[in-house]
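Internal ticket - ligand job 190, zinc ion:
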Amino acid sequence: MVRKPVDTERVQQLYRELLIALGENPDREGLADTPRRAAAWWTEFLNHDPGTLDTTFANDNSHDGLVVLRGIDAWSLCEHHLLPFRLTVTIAYIPGTRVLGLSKLVRQLHAHTHALQVQERITTDLAHALAKAAGTDDVAVLAEGEHLCMSMRGVKAPEVRTLTSCRLGRTADDPTVTTLFGRLALPSPR
Ligand SMILES: [Zn+2]
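stdout (structure tokens):
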């Protein structure tokens, strides 16, 4: 996703406007510095630099089984409500001649979560980005999300978790991935 950098100064002005539109006095003590803080937060979150994403190492011992990372936590922002959602992500892939540095898996996730997003797109885009970086088609991503737009507003369903998965290449019918992802996470259509 190509996006312009955040215009921090304009965001700060707009937050002041927003406070007024919300019926608040933006000059009262508790709010006086809120536009600046909020604009700084947006800038930090959206201008996030994930660092190097694609460092690989030779797969010396020809490990041809799954590499799995479980329980990776990340926060993103729902583009429909501008409210946060929290993801717990499992990544599984079968390395080819190269293996990806493990920290790169986490950085790749963060490269996709620091944006206005939907969980489905993070899941699919992350799987394809990892496949490209690792030079293999055999990548699977499972994401479990808790969405504040679900828990806080509307249906008020705090216990609901949204599961999304994307299984590419040989992971689509790998029984270990199926067990790992659980029966609730259906394989994505090929
Ligand atoms: Zn939402």
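Auto-summary: The domain at 56-181 is CATH 3.30.1130.10 (GTP Cyclohydrolase I, domain 2). The helical segments are 8-21, 34-46, 102-113, 119-134, 148-151, 175-181.
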